[in-house]
Amino acid sequence: MSRPRSPLAPSPWQVGLTYLALGLASVFVLFPLYWLIITSFKLPVDVNSGPFYLPWVDFKPSLHAWEYVLGTLGPDVRRAYANTAVVALSSALLALFLGTSAAYALTRFQYRPRVGAIVLFIACLVLTVALVALGMPWLPAVGLGLAGLILGLQTLGRRFKKHLGNDEIALWLISNRILPPVVVVIPIYLLFQQLGLLDTRTALIISYTVINVPIAVWLMRDYFQNIPHDIEECAQIDGASRYRIFWTIVLPLAAPGLVATFLLLLVFAWNEYLLALFLSKANSQTMPLMVAAMSGTRGTEWWYMSVIIVLMILPVVILALVLERYIERGLIVGAVKG
How big is the CA angle at 266 (ends 262 and 269), to the nearest 5 degrees? Predict the structure, then answer.
């Protein structure tokens, strides 16, 4: 009776162990969320003299923290909430659009950029930056850089033999995301300082879009590789253009991957802290900075912090629950290939 009838029909004790393991895993995963919610309804004395686990048993719930955050801190919270929503949604949509377009191109077209040409471009770019740093106006410096690039390609281009392929390009893209943001945060700060964009939503949207495009390319590239080319070839035979095929055939088929990728990009932008810390102050402050501000000279005010964190994660949780069907299908892309 304890032996499984088939690999797809486990025995009762295997089913029991599976549910027990899943139950324990759920407790470990959900308990921090439960503790966060009940802490938001505790008074400071309950937090400092605890731990108390059960409302109306260990402690009496109070709306003290919620009234303070939504009342006294209301304007600051609403401003930070609006900044987070605008920046996260805008950057996620932009990164998804750019990443999806690049991923489709990498799966349907063959690129063979020459290594020498890439090195020459980087050298001309460094020359342009050096000329600007030495005091030359940026317009003549850019002109000299472009002239040097064109001249170098015309004279040396034929000698460049080694090429890169699509796989190398994709690997280079994801390697940019592996780079720790703290390495580039100072150059990014100086760039936006010169452009006069510090403490603006625009700076955050640009930064988040750039750092999240590689993730969108990597995820959507795997999804597009699993879409049969025969469907597109049939549409081409019927006279459909490449753009029409992409918008009316490929994207609807890739809807689960698009939703899953969008949610991941949204979470990354919604929770980002380091770049927001350097690029924003009062006007463009986001929710992660608002949470960190609860730890000040009076110590960490866990009760207020819990309320702000609950408000911060609530939209993402609701969105994940609404889009659960698409996310489940999108996250298993590549698990089974024909």
Answer: 140
39-110+181-337 fold: MetI-like fold (1.10.3720)
CB 114 within 8 A of CB 162: yes
Q: Which helix (H) or strand (E) holds 300?
A: strand 299-300
User: Taking the mean position of all CA atoms in its chain, how far away is CA 241?
Assistant: 32
How far apart, in whole angstroms, are the C-alpha atoms of residue 176 and residue 203? 19
Specify whether the CB–CB gap between 217 and 173 falls below 8 A.
yes
Beta pairing partners, 295: 300
Q: Is the pLDDT of residue 334 over 60?
A: no
Q: Give the start-to-end residue ranges of the domains of the chain.
A: 39-110+181-337, 114-162
Among all chains, which residue has been given the structure tokens 């590239």?
221
Task: Name residue, tokens 């090195």.
Answer: 119
Return the bridge partners of 55, or none.
59
pTM score > 0.85 for this model?
Answer: no
Mean pLDDT for 280-302 is: 81
Phi, then psi, of 276 in degrees rounded to 5 = -65, -35
Check: CB of residue 162 under 8 Å from CB of residue 107: no
Residues 91-134 pLDDT 10s: 999 999 999 999 998 888 888 888 888 888 888 888 888 887 78
220 residue type, one letter:
M
On the CB side of 38, how many CA atoms lie within 13 Å of its CA? 18
State the Cα–Cα distance between residues 230 and 102, nearest whole angstrom: 21
Q: How many residues does the chain have?
A: 338
Q: Give the three-class secondary structure for 9.
A: strand
Question: Smallest Cα–Cα separation from 82: which of 311, 315, 286?
Answer: 286
Unique residue bearing structure tokens 């609006």: 82
Dist CA 250 CA 262 (whole Å): 17
The per-residue pLDDT for 338 is: 41
Give the integer Cα–Cα distance in Å for 5 and 122: 63
Angle at which helix 74-108 crosses helix 255-271, to 10 degrees, equals 140
Q: How deeply is 201 buried, as exposed, middle or buried, from its count of CB atoms within 10 A (0-12, 13-18, 19+)?
A: buried
